[in-house]
Amino acid sequence: xxxxxxxxxxxxxxxxxxxxxxxxxxxxxxxxxxxxxxxxxxxxxxxxxxxxxxxxxxxxxxxxxxxxxxxxxxxxxxxxxxxxxxxxxxxxxxxxxxxxxxxxxxxxxxxxxxxxxxxxxxxxxxxxxxxxxxxxxxxxxxxxxxxxxxxxxxxxxxxxxxxxxxxxxxxxxxxxxxxxxxxxxxxxxxxxxxxxxxxxxxxxxxxxxxxxxxxxxxxxxxxxxxxxxxxxxxxxxxxxxxxxxxxxxxxxxxxxxxxxxxxxxxxxxxxxxxxxxxxxxxxxxxxxxxxxxxxxxxxxxxxxxxxxxxxxxxxxxxxxx
Length: 321
Prior knowledge:
By secondary structure, this protein is of the alpha/beta class. It has helices at about 20-30, 35-45, 65, 100-115, 130-135, 155-170, 190-200, 225-235, 265-270, 295-315, and strands at about 1-5, 55-60, 70-75, 85-90, 120-125, 175-185, 205, 215-220, 250, 255, 260-265, 280-285.
């Protein structure tokens, strides 16, 4: 790995000095809305009314920062069955990772009814609507939601989802059994977001080769290798799996199988680590590949979920609910 270029400081802040409120406000001031959450996401969710249970689980109160508040939605299959395993699908934890959002919506549209024969399912397609609109990794407070899934979190996006899911578990007396968290790795991870992180925290960040292809991230405390491989096998029917780099890794982490790395997800505050689910995976699509298209990226996300669900459905022993 090589260090990010330090000779040219990030355009906000002073080198070696962590950001304060002034720098965060300066960063927010240059963010621009580039697409519409209402038109692209909410309008699709509204079309699910009747087929599924659509719940607004909270609102992001950002009008004092961005001039707008954002409703947050979850979609559940109707007619939940007691003792069926509970499956959670999340998208748009990082709002700029487009196929995570639209992959979740496509799964609802085309597959939720089928898999609700075997699982009770809840899908939160877009946790970070402001990030979706401005194509950002952070929220308006310069907080990364996907490092913030812990008690007393500074991320409203994380807090609202955790509260909703934990209340759902209590209501139905069932813990989440499997969790699919849909993400992307993009060229802007190195060109924009890691330099911004280095500036915000005044800590040098390492760059790494952006992998050309799809990969998944397992939870190191519950790897469940066969499950991860089932996800990757189904995705491989749609798009190419990312090869390891010359050091045998992917984004700076050792590859434990083709297209698979692992993180200590709960310790890092990752979305996939906040439940007690036995089967968890974070998907990573590479939309900037010469071989990628927006549609192919969406299909890869859907394939990851269906591949994992088909594996869970095939388990001979009854899952621990």
